[in-house]
Amino acid sequence: MTDLMFRGLLAAGGVVFSFNHSTIAGKMVLLLLAVGSIFSWSVMLTKLRVVRFARKQTDRFLAAFRQDRQPLRLFESNVRFPGSPIFKVYRAGCEELTFHLLGSPEIDETFRARLEIADKIAPAQLHAVTAAMERAVGEAALKLESQMILLATAVSGAPFLGLLGTVWGVMDTFTGVAEAGSANLAAMAPGVSGALITTVTALCVAIPAMFGYNFLVTSIRAMTVEMDNFAAELASEFEHKYVEHSGRVSDFRR
Fold this sequence. Notes:
mainly alpha
């Protein structure tokens, strides 16, 4: 344990030594990397909470939805599942369907009675319902993917920024050696050490961002596929219960 603590102190001392011997350009790069790290960690933690909450709310919604084979029951009850992207798809589809069935998506005390005597809609009107759900899927996916560009930038840009600081620092070191007219390890080591700290810092920024980005992208892609599947399932439920296929629909509402 004592040996590990001693090595840790040496490593910390090496970082401080490298920072102290870093050039002004290198310290500017380190500042940019620090700002990028703050933003990337902020995005990762925020998105992790959003995805976790969305998954919890989606599970609650699907459990409630599949308890009853009446697809408009939850919509009629005005139950809310904030944070669930699938619920947004469901609500968009229900609002469009009730508009075509009843002429208005508003819910009042006569909603159930009006729904029971309403004429079924034509298949062409179901296409409008499907399109509304597809728009909702796209909007929900875009919202889930918002700010992911910051993580992608941290993953791809931080190593290059760190490499720029290292190359710049090494260039300054060799320039100083050339001006001094003598090359020795004692003269070069501090400058090289100060130059390398930017690459080390850049990797410390990029590696966590890479793992977070991959996890979030996979989770968001899975939720998008789940939304697409649910939209298809809901459209099928609507078609079986509210669509007239005989071609004799008494009222075509636009």
